[in-house]
């Protein structure tokens, strides 16, 4: 079955007019908050539209079209804060939302950390990063692509006997943020994906795996049939798995799994965890946590970056800067509230981090396998066994046993464990095999030694 081509025809675009309309709404709400006596105020407006299609075993399961709007108002009376939201753009509803936020603020306690980010930190320029690429696709076309993806996977090998389905998703979002410092910023972005999950084998020997492609522009997606065939290949590679004896071995996290290690680090250096003293990396700024060659940079200005932005969720100007340099923690991940709780300044990360790049010191996956020689390649992680306070780590895993620098056989039913402080310090290599499907851009990560709990 030939895969339908991904259409990239031009789309009638009214996003600028919609941004102007939401900007007008935001400014009116700020004026109403000021008239009600608020000393500071901020408004967030967003509109989202999307289409999601799911198929399974050649049949359509769900088709969902969405169109959502949200208006959120936050007011400050000194250091008392109140927030309210609505999806209704009628003037009486907007006025009621402001009144409700003001009423809430009058009954809250003073919070010394409350308030807008400092005025001098506001972004002064507006930029776009090639992230707006609407996809003119209707439900039938999306169904055809999903069916083609699943069929390509099922047809690739007779051992593929079942399916968890295939999906096609598209989303477009526009947003405006404004505050009483005079800041007004608008953003627009799109995201599209094709995914497929397949099942091979029979009875207790069944194995499942999947693949997906995601991009800001539909033209950057993998072809639907290629996604299905990659899902089939990954599923077949997992057939006839073995268990491993319990022991300590090198563990190589495939790139898509390596992102989770970076995610655990981000959680530990985020402001909320730090000021609540719920992090195993308290007071870690300026200390060495990783090997001396290791680094992570934040790059908010990448063209077609998944998290590119000129300002954060508080209007603070973003900037390129290292999070980790020479293995040393350079800074935390802070919005203005958590920064004030810690006696620091915001790092322009209200709403999260922007594009992250993890420095590589090794080659592609094949060369990393050769360098490891013998150990475990992890391609799937299960469970949430991470203690954010102690850093203790224990998660179910599956993947492949490596002997002589080559994959020997699949393994599952195992647990990998350690302490994240020790895991970070024991990183020996980061590969160039970056998985581009995330704002965290990292290759595979090799940890010199972790406990693998298996069959004995």
Short description:
This protein has 456 residues and is an alpha+beta fold. Helix content is 24%, strand content 35%. The chain has helices spanning 15-35, 91-106, 139-155, 224-237, 255-268, 271-275, 336-342, 365-372, 420-425, and strands at residues 40-56, 59-77, 80-86, 160-179, 184-200, 207-215, 247-253, 296-298, 321-325, 328-329, 356-358, 375-382, 392-403, 406-419, 427-430, 440-441, 445-453.
Overview of this protein structure:
The mean pLDDT is 96. The protein is built from nine helices and 17 strands. It folds into two domains: 15-237, PmbA/TldD fold; 241-456, no CATH class. α3 (139-155) packs parallel to α4. A six-stranded antiparallel sheet has the order 3-2-1-4-5-6. Strands 7-12-13-14-17 form a five-stranded mixed barrel. It is α+β, with helices and mostly antiparallel strands and 456 residues long. β5 (184-200) and β6 (207-215) form a beta hairpin.
Topology:
Elements: H1 15-35, E1 40-56, E2 59-77, E3 80-86, H2 91-106, H3 139-155, E4 160-179, E5 184-200, E6 207-215, H4 224-237, E7 247-253, H5 255-268, H6 271-275, E8 296-298, E9 321-325, E10 328-329, H7 336-342, E11 356-358, H8 365-372, E12 375-382, E13 392-403, E14 406-419, H9 420-425, E15 427-430, E16 440-441, E17 445-453
Parallel strand pairs: 7-12, 11-16
Antiparallel strand pairs: 1-2, 1-4, 2-3, 4-5, 5-6, 7-17, 8-9, 8-11, 9-10, 12-13, 13-14, 14-17, 15-17
Helix pairs in contact: 3-4
- Determine and state the CATH class of the largest domain: Alpha Beta
Estimate the strand proportion.
25-35%
Radius of gyration: 24 Å
Low-confidence stretches: none
Alpha-beta classification: alpha+beta
Q: Approximately how much helix is present in the residues?
A: 10-25%
């Amino acid at each position: 079955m030939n895969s339908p081509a991904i259409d990239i025809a031009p789309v009638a675009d009214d996003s600028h007019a919609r941004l102007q309309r939401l900007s007008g709404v935001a400014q009116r709400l700020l004026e109403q908050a000021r008239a009600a006596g608020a000393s500071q105020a901020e408004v967030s407006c967003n509109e989202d539209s999307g289409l999601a299609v799911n198929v399974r075993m050649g049949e359509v399961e769900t088709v969902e079209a969405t169109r959502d709007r949200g208006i959120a108002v936050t007011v400050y009376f000194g250091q008392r804060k109140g927030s309210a939201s609505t999806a209704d753009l009628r003037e009486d509803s907007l006025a009621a939302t402001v009144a409700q936020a003001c009423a809430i603020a009058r009954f809250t306690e003073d919070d010394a950390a409350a308030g807008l980010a400092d005025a001098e930190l506001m972004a002064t320029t507006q930029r776009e990063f090639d992230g707006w690429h609407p996809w003119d696709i209707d439900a039938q076309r999306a169904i055809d692509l999903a069916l083609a993806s699943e069929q390509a996977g099922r047809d690739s090998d007779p051992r593929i006997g079942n399916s968890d389905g295939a999906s096609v998703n598209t989303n477009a979002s526009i947003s405006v943020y404004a505050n009483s410092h005079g800041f007004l910023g608008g953003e627009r972005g799109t995201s599209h994906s094709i995914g497929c999950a397949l099942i091979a084998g029979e009875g207790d020997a069944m194995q499942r795996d999947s693949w997906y492609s995601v991009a800001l522009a539909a033209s950057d997606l993998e072809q639907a049939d290629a996604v299905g065939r990659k899902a089939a290949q990954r599923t077949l590679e997992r057939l006839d798995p073995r268990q491993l004896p319990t022991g300590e071995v090198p563990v190589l996290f495939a790139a898509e799994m390596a992102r989770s290690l970076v995610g655990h680090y981000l959680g530990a250096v985020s402001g909320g965890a730090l000021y609540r003293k719920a992090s195993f990396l308290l007071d870690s700024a300026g200390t060495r946590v990783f090997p001396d060659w290791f680094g992570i940079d934040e790059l908010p200005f990448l063209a077609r970056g998944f998290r590119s932005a000129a300002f954060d969720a508080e209007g603070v100007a973003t900037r390129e800067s290292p999070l980790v340099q020479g293995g040393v923690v350079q800074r935390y991940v802070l919005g203005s509230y958590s920064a004030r709780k810690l006696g620091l300044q915001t790092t322009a990360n209200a709403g999260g981090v922007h594009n992250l790049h993890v420095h590589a010191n090794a080659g592609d996956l094949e060369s990393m396998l050769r360098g490891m020689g013998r150990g475990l390649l992890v391609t799937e992680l299960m469970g949430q066994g991470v203690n954010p306070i102690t850093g203790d780590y224990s998660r179910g895993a599956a993947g492949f046993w490596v002997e002589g620098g080559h994959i020997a056989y699949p393994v599952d039913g195992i647990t990998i464990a350690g302490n994240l402080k020790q895991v970070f310090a024991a990183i020996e290599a980061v590969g160039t095999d970056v998985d581009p499907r995330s704002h965290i851009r990292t290759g595979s990560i090799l940890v010199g030694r972790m406990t693998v709990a298996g069959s004995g």
